[in-house]
Design brief:
The protein is mostly beta strands and 158 residues long. It contains 2 helices and 9 strands. The strands form 2 sheets. It has a 5-stranded antiparallel sheet, covered by helices on one side. A 4-stranded antiparallel sheet has the order 3-2-6-7. Strand 6 and strand 7 form a beta hairpin. The C terminus is likely disordered. It comes from Cicer arietinum. Keywords: Calcium, Metal-binding. Pfam families: C2.
Length: 158
């Protein structure tokens, strides 16, 4: 399995169904998890039941894990002011094949695709659009501008 950087582009959501008794969802955000790493999106810009994030997140792919570990989990939440945030649903994207493809072809890309958002009982809650790019590790290190490094530290002397 490849080692490198995986960029996740959270584009938008469509038709997200609220779990609230009194109406629609105004403030959705997404928790994205991969191999113990978690990122949180901003609250989406809403247009009715359509929501736009257009945000990119970078995850390190470091391990040669088993096939069941190579998955991105998108937990869609609705931000509440006076109570706990509501869980709307989740989408899971398995990326093992994408990571494997990069070993043969270099950078591997999935264009923006729609993924179903479901609850634990598999009830449909809408869909999200996500694009993924995986860049494998180059020779002995990552591309410096992507993740920083010792040259960006205060100890670097030119």
């Amino acid at each position: 399995m490849a080692i490198g950087l995986m960029e996740v582009h959270l584009v938008k959501a469509k038709g997200l169904n609220s779990t609230c008794f009194f109406g629609g969802m105004e403030d959705p955000y997404v928790l994205i998890q991969y191999e113990g790493q978690e990122k949180r999106s901003n609250v989406a810009k809403s247009r009715g039941r359509n929501h736009v994030w257009d945000e990119k997140f970078v995850f390190k792919v470091e391990k040669h894990g088993s096939s069941d570990k190579h998955k991105l989990i998108f937990k869609i939440m609705d931000k509440d002011t006076f109570s706990a945030d509501d869980f709307i649903g989740q989408a899971i994207i398995y990326v093992k094949d994408l990571l494997g493809e990069s070993v043969q072809n270099g950078v591997a890309k999935l264009p923006p695709l729609k993924y179903r958002v479901v609850r634990a009982d598999q009830s449909y809650r809408g869909e999200i659009d996500v694009a993924i790019t995986f860049t494998p590790k180059v020779e002995d290190g990552f591309i410096e501008e992507d993740i920083g490094g010792w040259k960006q530290s205060s100890y670097y002397l030119s």
